[in-house]
Amino acid sequence: MAAKLKKGDKVIVLAGKDKGKTGEIVSVDPKAGRAIVDGVNMAVRHQRQTQNSQGGRVPKAMPIDLSNLAFVDANGKPTRVGFRLTDEGRKVRYAKTTGDVIDA
Questions:
Q1: What CA–CA distance (Å, rounded) separates 24 from 63?
Q2: Alpha carbon of 15 to those of 2, 19, 20, 47, 64: distances in Å?
Q3: pLDDT of 104 higher than 70
Q4: What is the β-pairing status of strands 91-95 and 81-85?
Q5: What distance in Å separates the CA atoms of residue 69 and residue 22, rounded to the nearest whole number?
Q6: Burial class (CB in 10 A: 0-12, 13-18, 19+), 78
Q7: Strand partners, 55
Q8: Closest by alpha carbon to 73, among 2, 32, 27, 22?
Q9: Whole-prediction pTM value?
C-alpha cells in the first residue's frame, strides 16, 4: 500500500494527550504503523554523561500511531489524503478537502 503520510509532511494530532498539536513528521515506520512527529508525544529520558555530551534529563519525541495523525492542507485544516493519476500518468497524493495535489 502506498504511504499516505511521509517524512516532512505537516500533520495535526487527532487523539491522545497532544490532541490539536501540529508538527512535522521526522520519520515513519510503515511496518509498525507509527511515526515520530517533531514536538509531539514527548517523553523524558535520562542520559548518562559521556565525554562528548552532558548528562541529564533529555526530552525525546516518541512514536505515535498513524491513525491519530491527519495531514494539514493549505488552509491549515486537517484533511484525508487520496491518490489519483495526473495527465502524464503519474500517481500523486491529493488533499480530499481542497483537491490540491500534495506531491508536485
A1: 13
A2: 23, 5, 8, 29, 10
A3: no
A4: antiparallel
A5: 9
A6: middle
A7: none
A8: 22
A9: 0.82
